[in-house]
Amino acid sequence: MKKSLITYFTILFIWFFCQNASAQVNSLTISVTVTETNSLIPVGYANAVIKSKTNTVITTAITNEQGSFTLSPIPPGNYMLEISFMGYKTFTKELFVGSLSEFLNIGKLQLTTDTQQLDEVVITSRQDEVGNKLDKKTFTLADNIAQSGGSVLQAMQNLPGVTTQDGKVQLRGNDKIMVLIDGKQTALTGFNGQSGLDNLPASAIEKIEIINNPSSKYDANGNAGIINVILKKNEEEGLNGKVGLISGYGALWQRKANLPTIRPQYQITPKINPSLSLNYRKEKVNIYFQGDYLYTETLNKNEFVTRTYDDGTIINQQTKRNRNTHFTNLKTGIDWNYNDNNTLAFSALFGSEKIIDNGDEPFFNADYSERLRLWQFLEDELKTTIMASASYQHKFKEAGHVLNTGINYTFHREDEKYFFDNILPTSAGRDAFKLLSDEKVLDVNIDYIKPLASGRFETGFKFRNRVIPTNMQFFPGQNSVIDANAGGKATYEESIPAVYGNYIYETNRIEAEAGVRVEYLDLEYEVNPNHPVYSTDGYHYLEPFPSLRFAYKLNDSHKLSLFYNRRVDRPNEVDIRIFPKYDDAEIIKVGKPGLRPQFTNTAELGYKANFEKGYFFASAYYKLVQGTITRIATTTPGSALIYNVFENAGKSYMTGSEAMFTHKPASWYSFNLNATVYRNTIDAFSVEILYPEPTSYFATKQQITSGNVKWNNTFTFSSTLTGQLMVAWLAPDIIPQGKTLGRFSTDIGLKKIIQKGKGEIFFNATDLFNTLVIRKEVQGNGFSYTSKDYYETQVVRFGYSYKF
After folding, report:
1. What gap in Å lies between CA 773 and CA 780, rounded to an integer?
2. Diameter of the chain measured on Cα atoms
3. Single pTM value for the model
C-alpha cells in the first residue's frame, strides 16, 4: 500500500511538472508608465529600449500621451531597460523576464531633469497640442510668452479655435462651455456656465486642455466643449518652490475721447501679480501650496452706442467703466500614498475677488446738443469662494485597474452693492440696490476603470446638490428707472444624479470608444410670491447622453477619427434670475424663470498627419441645437428703455471646419497656423416675452459665415532667449438680433532664462497696435443700434520668477 502511494504521488508530481512546464510562456508583454520626477506629469513620446546583456536591441517603443507603453514579445532572460527623452537623464534598469506570467507590470518610472544641460542651455520638449485621440488640445502656459502675466481669459484668447467676447471664452464661436479646475467644476469659474476667468491669474496655471469632443465620463453640459484649467502643483523630493513677480500697464493712451461732462477714463493702468509656490515631499507624503494675488486697474468698458427708433428718435450714449480688482487665490493640499495600492488626497481652495467699478453713462440727443441723462454708478462687489475636496484611489493588482472616489464641497458668496446718481435736466435722484447670494454645492463621485485584453471599461456615478438663495433689495430715488417691485428673494435648487459607462477597444489599426451618460435633473426656482411678473417655476428630465469615437490608423503617421456626442446646456442661475441688472440705465438685462435647457447633437470628422518637424490637423463638424438659449432685446410702447431677456429661440445649426498646421522649418523658428471657419444659422422663431410687460416677438432666419485665423510664431534667438509674435483676425459673426464686425490684434513677447535655468524674465505687449475694438449692429422691433467698445486691450507686462 505504501509503495502504491509513493508510485501515485510520483506520477502525480511528474504530471504536475509537465503541466507546469507546458504552461510556461515563451514570450512576455511588459507594461510601464513614465512620469517626470518633479511633477509626476506623464512623459509622452519618450523612447524605451530593451537590450540584451550583449547590448543587442531586442525591441523598442514610444510612450503615449499618458506616459505608458508596452514592450512585446520578450523571451525569458536578463535584460537592460533604457528610457530616454530630450532634457532628461537616461533611465536604466536591470530587468529579469521569467516564464511563469504572460504580463509584467513594472509600474511607474520617473525621469529626472538633466541639470548639467541646464547650466548653459535650457532644453525644452513639447508634445503636439493635438493629442493622438484628436479629441482635445493641450497648451502649456509657459509656452505662451506673448500672454504671460495676465488673467486666464487673456491667456486663452490667442489659443487655436478660441475667441473671447464680453468676458467669456468662445470655442468655435460658441460660449456654451464647461470650465473645470483640475478636472472639477467650481464656483470660481461657474457650474453651468463660465465666470471669473478674467480675474483668475494665469500665473497659477500649469496648462489648459480644450476638449471639443468629451466622452460620457464627463458631465453632460457644455455643447461647445470643455476647458480644463490645470493649476500648478510640484511634487519634487524635499522642499522646493517658485516665487514670481509680474507687473505691467494698460490703456497707454486714449483710444476714444469721452463724451462731455463725465469723469476721466482710466489711463496708464497698473497691474501687479506676485505668486508663490511651495512643495514638500518626503517618502509617501506630499504637501503643496500655491498662492497668487492679482491687482489690476482696468478700463473695463468704454462703449459708444447710437440707438435709432422707428419714430425718428436718436439717442447717443457712452458706457465707461473704470475697474479696480483685487483677486486672491490660495490652494493647499496633501497627498498620502500610504502603500503602493492606496492613496488619500485632501485639498482646500480659497478665492477672494474684490471689484470696485466707477462708471459714467451720459445720454445725448442726435446732435449732442442736449444731455438727456447722466447715470453715474459705483459698484462694490465681493465674491468669496471656499472649496474643500477629499479623494481616495485604490489600485488593484492588475495594472490600470483603479477605483477612484471623491467628495467636493463648494461655498460661494456674492455680495454686491450698486449706488447710482440719476441726473436728469430738471432733477437728480439717488438709486441703489443690494444683492446677496450664497451658493452651496456638494459633489460626490465614484469612478471605476477595468483594463481588458484590447482596451478598458469605465463606469461611474456622480451626485450633485446645488442650492442658491438670493436676496435683491432695490432702493429707488426720484424719477428712477429702477423697478423696485422686481426685487425680493428667490431660491434656486438642483439635484443631479448621473451614471455612465464607457467601453474602449483598440487594435493595431482601429480605436473605438462608445459610452452613454444617463442624467436625471430636478430643478426648482422658488420666486418671491409678490413679484409683479414671474412666479415659481422648475422642470425635470431623465435623458441619455451618448458619445462615440471611432478611429482608423491609416499608418503610423496618418489617422482618421469620427466623433458623435449629445450634450445639454442648462440655464445658469443668473440666466433665470428674476432681478433686472442696472449696470446700464437704459439697456437692462433680466433673466427668465421659465427658461429651459438646450440640447445639442454634434458630429465631427478629424484627421491628423505627423511628419518629421511638425503635424497637420483638420476637422469638419456639424451641430444641431434644439431650444437655443439667447437674449432678446425689446422695448415697451412709449418708452426708450431696452430690455434684454433670455429666451429659448428654437433650432439653430452650426457647420464648420478647423485646420492647424505646426512646423519647424529651421532650428531657430517654428510656427502654428490655425484657421476656423463656421456657418451659423438661427431659424426663424417667435416668443412671448413677459417682462416688463407681455410682448410678442418674431425673428426672421439669421445666417452668417464666420471664423478666425491665428498665426503663432516662435523665434529661438539663443539657447536661453525666445521670442513670440502672435497675429489674430476674427471675422464678423452673428449675435442675437445682429452681428459683431471683424477685428484683429497683434501680440509680442520675449523670454530670457537666467541663473543657470533657475530664473526667468519676460516682457510682452498685447494688442500692440490698439486695433481690437468690438463693434456690434443690432436690429430689434421698433429700434436698432450700433456700438463700438474701446475697452482696454493694449497692455505691456514684465516679470521675473525664480525656482528653488
Report:
1. 23
2. 126
3. 0.79
